Amino acid sequence: MKGMEENEDWRFKVANREALIGIALAIFNFIWWFGFAYGLGSRPVEEYTYVFGLPSWFFYSCIVGFITIAILVILVVRFFFKEVPFTEEGDEV
Amino acid sequence: MNWPVIIPMLVFLVIIFFIGIWSSRKTAASGDGFIQDYFLGGRELGGFVLAMTMVATYGSASSFLGGPGTAYTMGFGWILLAMSQVVTGYFVLMILGKKFAILARRYNAITLVDFLKMRYQSTAVVLLSAFAIIVFLFSAMAAQWIGGARLVESLTGISYNTALFIFAISVLVYVTIGGFRAVAVTDAVQGAVMVVGTFVLLVAVIIAGGGIPNIIGDLVSENPNLITPYGNEGNLSKAYVSSFWILVGVGVVGLPQIAVRSMSYKSSVSMHRALIIGTIVTGIIMLNMHLIGVFARPILPGIEVGDTVIPLISMEVLPAWLAGIVLAAPMAAIMSTVDSLLILVSSTVVKDVYLNYIKPDASMKTVKRASFGVTAVLGIIVYMLALNPPDLLIFLNLFAFGGLEAAFIWPIVMGLYWKYSNKYGAIASMIMGISSYVGLHFYNQANGNLFGLHTVALPVLLSFLAFVGGSLAFERKAHSFKQARKEQLKHEYATEE
């Protein structure tokens, strides 16, 4: 992306940054989901532990994982996402 | 006839119908921008409506009937798989996000094909993508209609054909009249119904099953595999389940019906709000619906057609009138998916093919008549196809999803973020994506999944390679959006003179 900086629309820089955040979040989400599900769920069923009656692998991977991601999305949007105009008046800024 | 269930559903359909009429009044009032309005709701969706229309479009029959039905058979492993969809709630809007919204406005794009046309300046790209949308979304629509008719069938006991007819009429009347705004606004209502409905049903199922530990105990004593991540026969492999992250997770960026929603919102504030609401709502609906599917197993053992699990369990555990209201949720999901697909296919025909190549100077009146007419005719054709339906709804549906994703993901994403993207890359990528998807589909059917992955994974990779290869091999040149903008403006001034 070198050489683009000097003449590319400033709003696109914001967009690029936010797209990278999206990718990072998705990777984090996948690792959490995969790690807990197969880390805790690959044992024989007799050795399973339970949280609120649900198998622990499922509880941490799918329920806690979902809540964590939802909180992260809220934080990321609130603190890192910028408001930009969509119409062309924003072009010349 | 099961009137106590049917009446609340009928009331629901009537309400939806009136919202459609109300929205169409708004469309009629804005006169000049008919196309933008009918197919895109005038680009003024707010955050809540945007989030809900995304979720409802995406949370289709596969997640409301097929998905829980499969979870019923496979157990917790299928819920794990379904939870890969939470990523769509934020990923799509973060990736397409602001850049897509800005460019869509700059290009005056109404459809995904408009965007590709302006970015790549190529007739071949336009025709290929219109072709892919029409072919693949047809199979998706047929799958959804079948789901809708099945639902009506299992609720009322009337025959499948009659059910299909009722379903088709209600969808058609409403889409033809209302257009995109009607679809989006009612998606919001339907989305809310879905969230509440799944909660009510989940609680009722847990109570009927004697509490979660009791249900889990029943599942373990029937077959311990049901509570592992590996499926009832232990054959859900890590690779297979993980490849659903492409199919129903990040790959959704490439779905035209989702992309078109990413150009319909009003401002970055509505986009931010939609990111949050969309993530939460997707997660809640997916988690609840699939849990219901699994929990239904000890309560109602021996259901054979997966699609009927949700209707049957609702009628089992809820009082009839409440079941009627709750079942409006999957009905809502199916209707809104069908509606948006119908609008999308008809916009492709009218806007991308008819206006681009057949009659560019058509009058507003002709365009209006063509839009309504094409929408209605398409609906009737899908109805005919759905009359003779295949059994495995979910796979038919996923076939269409995967094919579209393989075709569009790179032309969209790389077109936005990689300056060397050009039409050769886009064409190569679409052809490679579709042909390898179809080819691999048949290979996998005959020989089992290659590398244990879902069909979608390899074509997405291959189409990426084709995209990069094609773009670098022919006329390699860095694209500047600024330069393109200048040329566009010059062209516009020239035509105004």
Automatic annotation (TrEMBL), chain A:
Keywords: Membrane, Transmembrane, Transmembrane helix. InterPro entries: DUF997. The chain crosses the membrane at residues 20-38, 58-81. Pfam families: DUF997. This is Putative membrane protein YhdT. It comes from Planococcus citreus. The lineage of its organism: Bacteria, Bacillati, Bacillota, Bacilli, Bacillales.
UniProtKB/TrEMBL annotation, chain B:
Keywords: Cell membrane, Membrane, Transmembrane, Transmembrane helix, Transport. The keyword Transmembrane helix applies. The chain crosses the membrane at residues 6-24, 45-65, 71-96, 125-146, 158-180, 192-216, 236-255, 275-300, 320-345, 366-386, 392-417, 424-444, 450-474. It comes from the Bacteria. One of its GO terms (biological process) is sodium ion export across plasma membrane. It is found in: Membrane. CDD domains: SLC5sbd_PanF (cd10327). InterPro entries: Na/Glc_symporter_sf (IPR038377), Na/pantothenate_symporter (IPR011849), Na/solute_symporter (IPR001734), Na/solute_symporter_CS (IPR018212), Sodium:Solute_Symporter (IPR050277). Belongs to the sodium:solute symporter (SSF) (TC 2.A.21) family. This is Sodium/pantothenate symporter. It comes from Planococcus citreus.
